[in-house]
Amino acid sequence: MNMQIGQSLARPASYTAFTPEQRISLAAQRVVDCIICLIAAPFAIIVGAIIALMIRCEGAPVLFSQRRIGFGGREFNCLKFRSMVPGADVRLEELLACDPAARAQWEKFQKLEDDPRVTRLGKFLRATSLDELPQLINVWRGDMSIVGPRPILAEQIALYGGSFTTYCAMRPGITGLWQISGRANCTFADRVQLDVRYARGWSILGDLRIIVLTVPAVFGRRGAR
Question: Computed over its alpha carbons, how large is the radius of gyration of the chain?
């Protein structure tokens, strides 16, 4: 689905429909995002450089960029450290075509428990969520927020149904309710409900609570896949 279609579907939830109070809150969230980016920058640069070197030693490109749906239905390039082998999309199609169990798992979770496309280093990066470290760049650009719904693919819009406009009311986040509620153990339908719950009950204090709870969720590797 192209950007224009995404925008038209999301228009009821775009920033123009927000009250002045909600716009102030979103502006406050943006300020908090920028402050966190500046605080995290030294750590991100050092750790990111080490990860980049390790990925290059595997002979693969360092970054993976994928078009995702963001605030107001606009598409953006979502960045990650590469954790899969080259040609992963083609391998996924081949796997789902010949393995009914894998297809059933993919349709339910939009994830695979033992994904053969993930590299050995990639498994560690995903388990610790370090593969998402480059998304701090997306946050700084304003494409994403530190906390928000998980960024989705255009082909996943249909899975959100009528909740898609609610999803588009917030910037997608690096962490969120999904991250602290089981991560990949949640079905995609659970993830949709968590995104709707987050958007409808959003507050700065709620975001800070999610950030605090993300730390034990990541280090405990709860629901990592």
Answer: 17
Query: Which tokens sit at 6?
Result: 């995404």
Half-sphere exposure of residue 217: CA atoms within 13 angstroms, side-chain side: 22
What is the average per-residue pLDDT within 191-208? 90
Task: Say how far apart CA 77 and CA 25 lie, in whole Å.
Answer: 25
Which of 130, 147, 155, 2 is CA-nearest to residue 74? 2
The closest alpha carbon to 133, from 22, 60, 52, belongs to 52
Asked if 147 contacts 207 with a C-beta cutoff of 8 angstroms, the reply is yes
Q: Which residues of 49-77 are buried (b: 16+ CB within 10 A; e: fewer)?
A: eebbeebeeeebeeebeebbbbbbbebbe
Residues 72-108: tens digit of each pLDDT: 899 999 999 999 887 778 888 888 888 888 888 888 8
Q: How far apart are CA 60 and CA 80, in angstroms?
A: 13
pLDDT in tens, 124-134: 998 889 999 99
53: tokens are 């070197």
Q: Three-state DSSP class for 174?
A: strand
Q: Cα 193 vs. chain centroid, distance in angstroms?
A: 15
Cβ atoms within 10 Å of 195's Cβ, excluding its own: 26
DSSP code of residue 63:
E
Name the nearest CA neighbour of 131 among 48, 213, 210. 48
* Amino acid letter for position 98: C
